[in-house]
Design brief:
Strand content: 15-25%
CATH class: Alpha Beta
CATH superfamily: Spore Coat Polysaccharide Biosynthesis Protein SpsA, Chain A
Distance between the termini: 11 Å
Helix content: 25-40%
CATH architecture: Alpha-Beta Complex
Number of domains: 1
Number of helices: 6
Radius of gyration: 16 Å
Order of helices and strands: EEHEEHEHEEHHEH
Shape: globular
Structural class: alpha/beta
CATH topology: Spore Coat Polysaccharide Biosynthesis Protein SpsA, Chain A
Largest sheet: 4 strands, mixed
Number of strands: 8
Length: 180
Amino acid sequence: MGGADKALLALQGKPLLAHVMARLSPQVAALALSANGDPARFAGFGLPVLPDETPGLGPLGGMLAGLRFAAAGGFARVLVAPCDTPFLPANLADGLTASLARADAPAAFATRGGRAHPTIALLATSLEPALARHLRAGPRAVLSFFDAITAIPVGFDAGDADPFLNLNTPADLLAAGPDG
């Protein structure tokens, strides 16, 4: 997006982060934001901002920060989603939680139409040591970690609109609605 902070880009008159917060707030007990750089740019959202302990680890670095924050707060699980997926389903947490319970797995991630969305996931906070070890070993791909811990895919295939639409380009943002 030309170096712009995706979380702050406008979609339908609101920053993308506000859309994600609105989708996730009814589904979770607390929200936090994984972001590097100056946290002051997010002051208006009222969220704790969690920087990566080690820059350059990609989404797994953010997941690690989230796991540590949640564990310190006494939470058993963390629901993660990127700030550029503003149409997340209202049953995301319930669907992932139910699948975890049935499979007795430590993590689950969203799929739709056979396509994996590994950055939209529910992880047990007990995975923090395993994720830290995984990152020290080098692989930074989310699916490589999920393969190592036997995370389960959970299908969200109902409806025509893609709830996991990821807005990666100015054209994506424009197609998703006004203000793009």
